[in-house]
Amino acid sequence: MKHNLETALSLILEEKYNPSDPLETLSSLVPSDYLQVLQKNDTILSLNDPLKYFYFLLSGQVSVWGQIAWNTNNIIERLNPLEILGLVEYLNHIPYYTAYILAESKCTLLRIPVEEYIRLIQNNNKLCFLTLSVLGKVTASNMACAAQQNLLSTKDILGHYLFAQSRPHRPYVCPVTRTDLADLLHINLRTLYRHIDAMAQNNYLMLRKGKIVIEEEHFRRLEARYGNVII
Q1: Mean pLDDT on 186-197
Q2: 75-79 and 62-65 beta bridge pairing
Q3: CA distances from 213 to 95, 154, 168, 217 (A)
C-alpha cells in the first residue's frame, strides 16, 4: 500500500480529520504502526524515557503527571486535541520526556519518529507553518490558564465561576458533573470536592440531591466577594 504521510500530517495539523474516528481519515495514509489506540489509564509516555517519537493527540483526553504516586494526585494538567507531545522537549534540546502522560479516556494518537518529522517540516514549508500555528495555539492557551491561576486560587476560580453563572437568574442549579466542572476550570477533582464542601459550610452554595444550587442568599455572598473581580 502506498502511503502519503505529508497529506496525513496536513489533515491533522489543520484539524480536517474526523475527530470522532481519526482512523477513518488516516488509516489509508500512514503505516498502521504509526496509529495508536489506547484505553483509559494506559501509559503513553514515561518520565525520562528517551525522546524518540512525537505523539499527536488526535482524540480523547490525557493527563500530565510530574511523578507517579498512586496514593496521591500529581496531575499537572489535562490535554485535549490537538497536542504534539514531545515537541517542547525537542525545541528545548531536552533528549528525554519530562513527564508521565496517561490516557484519561480512549485516545487515538499518531506516533512518528522525531527525525522523520523534523526532516519533513524542514522540507515542507506548509507543514512547518502549520506546526508553528499549532504550537502558537497551545502556547496561548497555556498562558491564559497560567494567568487565571495566578490571579485566583482554585477555590476562588470555582467561586467566581458560580457567581458568573448564577448572575442571570436564581435559583441556579449547576448542570455539569463534578468531573466536567473540574476539567472546565482546570481544578484537580479531589480539590474541587473539597472546595465545594467548604463553600457549602460557609453558605456560598447549597447541595441538593448532589447538585450545586445557588439561591439568592448564596448569590449575595458570592457577589460581595467576586462582584468586582474581572478575569
Answers
A1: 91
A2: antiparallel
A3: 49, 19, 14, 11
